[in-house]
Amino acid sequence: MDTTLRFDILPQDTPAHDALRQTLQARIDGKTKPLGALGRLEDLALQLGLIQGRPDPVARQARVIVCAGDHGIAHEGVSAYPQEVTWQMVMNFLAGGAAVNVLARSVGMEVQVVDAGVAHDFGRIAGLVHAKVAPGTANSAVQPAMTAAQCDAALARGRALAHQAAEAGCQVLALGEMGIANTSAASLLLHKLAGVPLEVATGRGTGVDDAGLARKRAVLTRAAARTGTLGAFDALCEYGGLEIAMMAGAMLGAAERRLLVLVDGFIASSALLAAYRLAPAVRDYAVFAHQSAEAGHAALLQALQARPLLALDLRLGEGTGAVLAWPLVQAAAAFLDGMASFAAAGVSGQSA
Ligand SMILES: O=C(O)c1ccc[n+]([C@@H]2O[C@H](COP(=O)([O-])O)[C@@H](O)[C@H]2O)c1
Ligand SMILES: Cc1cc2nc[nH]c2cc1C
User: Fold this and answer.
1) ipTM of the prediction
2) Per-residue pLDDT for 226 more than 90?
3) So what CATH class is 15-58+335-345?
4) Could you tell me if the CB of 206 is within 6 A of ligand 2?
5) 62 CB under 6 A from ligand 2?
6) Which atom of ligand 1 is nearest to the CA of 180?
7) Which active-site residues does the annotation give?
8) pLDDT tens-place string over residues 27-39
9) Ligand 2 center to residue 300 CA distance, Å?
């Protein structure tokens, strides 16, 4: 089985990119600083230029899309919080009172809240993007979480949301999520797609105690045993979530429109892992914002050969870590644009 969608992402290893890479590197190296002294900001500037296909990339507008979804596996008692927190937090996002709202305001980022698959009827509520594919997934401990049609619908809707962000003028798209029990889905994806043992891939999520962690591991072991080796789409169907598939679709759609993708924590990274396996070129568009305190995130980042920008011990989700990395992307574009070159400033370059 495979997704019916085809993602059209420009790979970045073409000869045209080699020429642009050299131009960007020369611009970076010509700035008034010791060679390489802006460290990872230099990598960011280079990546942004390659993504936008220009030596003078811009980072003016960014949006965070928070995808919310519920999980059948929550009924196995794998989270420290009850399922209704998902829809209650959606209301909190819409009221502007959640962490992601506050942090996004502080860095000048727009928040879009999406019902990807919450097990609650919101009615026609203002401000919410109504993209509910189903009222939560099925319990992946006993059956596939999603049908292929549901997974395809979530991917397609995510892609469309990313395209809309591009049309609205964004250069950068951050993806975040809300979904009680979705660390279970992310751990199962990590286990199935990267072969990471469940003992390593499973953490405390919202904060289960030792007994809760043991129970969660037992549930995930049972769930994983239902299937053998899986491709990315089948793994999403079997163990993913509607919000995870929607984030994956949005990441792929963002790359199609040459947006830089800011990846949040453990669950968002599992969406990127699935997206990467569906279309490897998406990896070049991704910036890993932070290393989550969730056990398993280190292994996930390693599987993607990713080095996150920040390490703040966050384990909240919602896109909070991704939002905090937006000023760094802006700083990268700003130094490339505004710093004087050695020639312009009359500063001597490196000694021969
Ligand atoms: O982003 C992270 O790294 C992260 C780590 C742990 C928990 N979360 C959030 O907590 C919820 C999932 O935790 P749980 O225990 O219900 O599986 C979900 O709403 C996530 O946004 C998020
Ligand atoms: C309160 C609360 C807020 C969240 N935000 C993301 N995941 C969350 C989980 C809980 C429990």
Assistant:
1) 0.99
2) yes
3) mainly alpha
4) yes
5) no
6) 16
7) 318
8) 999 999 999 999 9
9) 21
What are the structure tokens assigned to 216, written together?
Answer: 């969660």
Backbone angles phi, psi at 165, to 5 degrees: -60, -40
Is 282 touching ligand 2 by the criterion CB < 6 Å? no
Rounded distance between C-alpha atoms, residue 194 and residue 185, angstroms: 14
184 Cβ closer than 6 Å to some ligand 1 atom: yes
Q: Which atom of ligand 1 is nearest the CA belonging to 80?
A: 15
Q: Please, are residues 145 and 239 in contact by the beta-carbon 8 Å criterion?
A: yes
In the structure encoding, which two tokens stand for residue 94, read together?
A: 């819409």
Task: Write the residue with the smallest CA distance to atom 22 of ligand 1.
Answer: 317
Hey, which CATH number is domain 62-330, 3.40.50.1100, 3.40.50.11540, 3.40.50.10210, 3.40.50.11310?
A: 3.40.50.10210
Query: What average pLDDT does the structure give for the chain?
Result: 97
Instruction: Tell whether ligand 1 has an atom less than 6 A from the beta carbon of residue 187.
Output: no
Q: Where are the domains of the chain?
A: 15-58+335-345, 62-330
Task: Lowest mean pLDDT of 11-25, 38-52, 266-280, 303-317, name the range.
Answer: 11-25
pTM score:
0.98
CA of 54 to the centre of ligand 1 (A): 37
pLDDT band at residue 2 under the 50/70/90 scheme: confident
Q: Where are the alpha helices (DSSP H) in the chain?
A: 15-29, 39-52, 85-95, 99-107, 148-167, 182-194, 198-201, 210-225, 232-239, 242-256, 266-278, 297-303, 320-338, 342-345
Non-local (6+) Cβ contacts of 15 within 8 A are: none
In this structure, what is the dihedral angle of CA atoms 236, 239, 241, 247, given to the nearest 10 degrees? -40
- Per-residue pLDDT, averaged over 198-223, amounts to 98
What's the gap in Å between 334 CA and the centre of ligand 2? 34
Q: Which of 17-21, 232-236, 271-275, 336-340 shows the lowest per-residue confidence on average (mean pLDDT)? A: 17-21
